Amino acid sequence: MVHQPMIAPSILSADFARLADEAAAVTGADWLHVDVMDAHFVPNLTIGLPVVKALRGATDIPLDCHLMIEDPDRWATGYAEAGAHNVTVHVEAAKDPVRLAKDLRAAGARAGLSLKPGTPLEPHLDVLKHYDTLLVMSVEPGFGGQRFMAEVLDKVRTARRLVDTGHLRLVVEIDGGINADTIGQAAEAGVDCFVAGSAIYDAADPGAALERLRERAARAR
Ligand SMILES: O=C(CO)[C@@H](O)[C@H](O)COP(=O)(O)O
Ligand SMILES: [Fe+2]
């Protein structure tokens, strides 16, 4: 388990007209989570490569790009080349996830693999050996502000066990519905990195909200 809980604010809940300021409001963040949606893999359309490139120049926080797109085999390495620290693709969308992980690493990024809430972990364990991050979705991808699905924590517990016993080398990340009421159970289950959008950016002081989440997670471990 990484030393202290990592927090990744999701800019999906930030003010898109003031992204540089919104990044500056969370300087304590470990990663800045960027939700890329293409209106095909998910029923929502957000931002893409030009905005990621602009953000890269506007903040020093490592960018954690979560690609909810139909054809990650074609587009994902562009995000790594644009300077993203971690690029996560969905196992449900990737045609050749092992190749993709190698390409992402060759382009200088960490490679992340995400599972939708209904996607089991076990069939993908061999593929996960090639990845640096496992992103467990705790809402159906597409929108911020949804209710946390505690049933995905079984996948987190399994992944934690496999990491702690040396079978996988991964940061275990969770995404969706993380707030002061839910972060404790996710931390107990073994999450390393917590994505939080509305719980941070809907708060009057996003930086303070981030640190409160981190404290809660640390206490629950
Ligand atoms: O990937 C997604 C949604 O598809 C997330 O990253 C959300 O943006 C998280 O928002 P909250 O559930 O924390 O409000
Ligand atoms: Fe996300």
- Return the CATH class: Alpha Beta
Bound molecules: 5-O-phosphono-D-xylulose, fe (ii) ion
- Overall, the morphology is globular
Sheet with the most strands: spatial strand order: 1-8-7-6-5-4-3-2
Major β-sheet annotation:
8 strands, parallel
Query: What would you report as the Rg, rounded to the nearest angstrom?
Result: 16 Å
Family: Belongs to the ribulose-phosphate 3-epimerase family.
GO molecular function: D-ribulose-phosphate 3-epimerase activity
Cofactor: Zn(2+); Fe(2+); Mn(2+); a divalent metal cation
Protein name: Ribulose-phosphate 3-epimerase
Report what the structure shows:
- Catalyzes the reversible epimerization of D-ribulose 5-phosphate to D-xylulose 5-phosphate.
- Pathway: Carbohydrate degradation.
- It catalyses: D-ribulose 5-phosphate = D-xylulose 5-phosphate.
- This protein is α/β, with parallel strands linked by helices.
- It has one domain (6-220): Alpha-Beta Barrel (TIM Barrel), CATH 3.20.20.70.
- Helices cover 35% and strands 19% of the residues.
- It has nine helices and eight strands.
- The chain has helices spanning 19-24, 49-58, 72-81, 97-106, 125-128, 153-164, 183-189, 198-201, 206-220; strands spanning 6-9, 32-37, 63-68, 86-90, 110-115, 133-137, 171-175, 193-196.
- The protein has an eight-stranded parallel beta sheet.
- The model has no long low-confidence stretch (mean pLDDT 98).
- The structure holds 5-O-phosphono-D-xylulose (5SP) and fe (ii) ion (FE2).
- 5-O-phosphono-D-xylulose (5SP) is lined by residues 10, 12-13, 33, 35, 66, 139, 141-146, 175-178, 195-199.
